[in-house]
Specification:
With 221 residues, this protein is α+β, with helices and mostly antiparallel strands. It is built from seven helices and five strands, in the order H-E-H-E-E-H-E-E-H-H-H-H. The relative contact order is 0.13.
Length: 221
């Protein structure tokens, strides 16, 4: 079908605009990817950890996850850029080894940065710290899922967990990367001390909490 000359220019402009919108929409969606690097039960601790990470990374954000947990993340950015950054920061040991990518759908209210609107998944609210608040159970992760995630750990990552448990006085054994009865008992003792179910297997969130606190405490010393 031929287009009259006086309409062709307008038609082409509209067509280009539509095609541009269709091509850029997926890219906009890809921008919403975060590096989930840590989670804490206590808001005060989460704020301290977010503040520590923010001293090194300018795009640190903190969100309420659910069931009383608070997540610390880096981003957002495109999924491709986030994937590359995740590998790079892991290689430099700047973030926990079990950090992973998320699309932000599990993020609720933002607690970091405080009072700055950054286009978060939900409206930002003013943070009010409640001293003595009782921690709630962590976001659901089945024991089967925790075991599967643990099985994927490298020997170095297992040794890092043993070193952290040893640092806090829960593990008197040798750091060899092998999770025997001594390591299981140490994990259970750490879980008990942190108000978690004593399964003897660390969830992904618990691993991030244990190793993150260990690195932070080591840095202070």
């Amino acid at each position: 079908m031929l287009i009259p000359g006086r309409f062709s220019g307008r038609f082409l402009a509209v067509l280009v605009g539509v095609l541009t919108l269709l091509n850029t929409a997926p890219l906009a969606a890809q921008e919403q990817t975060w590096l989930q690097i840590e989670a804490q039960l206590a808001l005060n601790t989460a704020l301290d950890r977010a503040r520590a990470y923010a001293a090194r990374f300018p795009d640190v954000e903190g969100y309420k996850l659910g069931n009383g947990w608070y997540g610390i993340a880096i981003g957002p950015q495109s999924k491709a850029a986030a994937s590359a950054r995740l590998l790079d920061l892991r290689r430099q040991n700047l973030i926990p080894a079990d950090s992973y990518l998320v699309d932000g759908t599990s993020y609720g209210q933002r607690f970091w940065p405080v009072g700055v609107d950054s286009g978060t998944p939900e409206a930002t609210v003013e943070v009010t710290v409640e001293p003595g608040a009782t921690p709630q159970p962590e976001p659901a992760q089945t024991l089967k899922q925790s075991r599967a995630a643990e099985a994927a750990l490298t020997e170095a990552e297992r040794m890092a967990l043993q070193e952290a448990l040893q640092w806090y006085g829960f593990y008197p054994g040798s750091v060899d990367g092998s999770f025997g009865t001594g390591s299981r008992a140490a994990i259970s003792a750490w879980q008990a001390a942190n108000g978690a179910e004593q399964t003897g297997v660390l969830s992904s969130v618990q691993r991030g909490q244990l190793t993150g606190n260990h690195r932070s405490d080591q840095a202070e010393f």
